[in-house]
Write a structure and sequence with these properties.
By secondary structure, this protein is α/β, with parallel strands linked by helices. It is built from 15 helices and 20 strands. The strands form 3 sheets. A 9-stranded mixed sheet has the order 7-8-6-9-10-11-12-13-14. Helix 5 packs parallel to helix 9.
Length: about 475
Amino acid sequence: MQLQGKRVTVFGLNRSGVAAAKLLHAQGASVLLTDKRTSEALSAEIAMLNEFSEPGEIEKYLGGHPAQCIDDIDFIVVSPGVPLDIPILCEAQAQNIPILAELEVAARMCPAPIVAITGTKGKSTTTLLTAAILKECRKFHNVCIAGNIGVPLAAEVQNLTNQDIVVLEASSFQLESTITFHPLVSVVLNLSRDHLDRHGTMSDYREAKQKISANQTEDDWMVLNGSDPSIKDFAASTAAEVVYFTDEVVREVPSFSGTFRDGTQLLAQRDGVRDRICDIKDIPLPGAHNVQNVLAAATVGQILGVKGTQIRTALRNFDTSHPALVHAFETVRRVDGIEFINDSKATNVAAVKAALESIEGCRVVLIMGGYDKGNDYTPLCEIVRNRVKAAVMLGEYTRQIEKTLVDTTDIVKAGTMTEAVQIAYKYASAGDVVLLSPANASFDMYTDYRARGVAFKDAVHALQSLD
């Protein structure tokens, strides 16, 4: 990608925006930055800009997006958090100014092959599991973890070579503004209703996800969840070789290629030959939903030549302390025989359903609510009726949840996280689980899901045992 002398505007001064600006600047582009936030709110980000540019060298339009931020520019780079339908970007589209994702720009300059992982839930966990498996086989000089998991690809590409490999978590926000993005392996874990406040329709959300494989060729691979009927048709829209993972038993089907579950064993099959991956007890993360995440990661390993013994070693040594795994089905504490689980990262209905399915043999008091992204809570009705003894509603946008679940369980409202935890504690008995699994974003009360999870953990640690 030739950037010398190009004039580029970066929209959104978050981690991706700063990383994109640094990459563009290093490649000789003239960079402009714009963000709706003020300079005071962006003091930390501006300090990062000043580390690689001289004062005044990068033009900034802060506190809004004036018309001049798109005057006489070659293209626009958007951070994932910037919606494409804001007026200034609509005007840019009308002027035929190219709008590229940070991921698109970084990937065009990336010398290493990319494994890109997307889905409504499980992306971060599968990204980390895949990276651990690829590190274990020692075929690559460096295994780089990047993308939506926290480190923008733009921040890494200048340190990579063709002897490395990138394991990339790709969100729909990142994918929707890609044009030539071309991973060696694409992985789609699942698809369910989410982010409709941004994408508008399920069709548009699906279209954004499908961009992960749009440019793949017959020399590439696409990994699909064979247990999720909502993504089976993705196979028809790619030229890549499609390989499946499924937590269902695959009988003697010689044509099947991928990974599957058989009782307590996880197995891989290719060209009719089966290889043992591991036993379910070897999975380093709690919850039945992590079986599929391990299968997906193992399928990538299988494609890239990792042996079953190496996959088992990677799982045995897997580091569960990564920040991306905090607030994801995390046991906080037991009080009077009641287990408290922090699943604040569950920001959609599918994630809540998966969490509830992972809790077997006991009753649950569920804390949920937050900023509604256009969710349909109907898929929760049956499992809430069967497993949830009470649901505590927390946040501004709980009316639709209450309306949907009204006949399934007791519903109680809380004004603060402390109150929600105390109410849940009173409802629960020894042997029960109190689960924070909100199904919504946190922006009504907190800066992000991490802050919400911390608030939950603080409230749980403040509980006084009744014993």
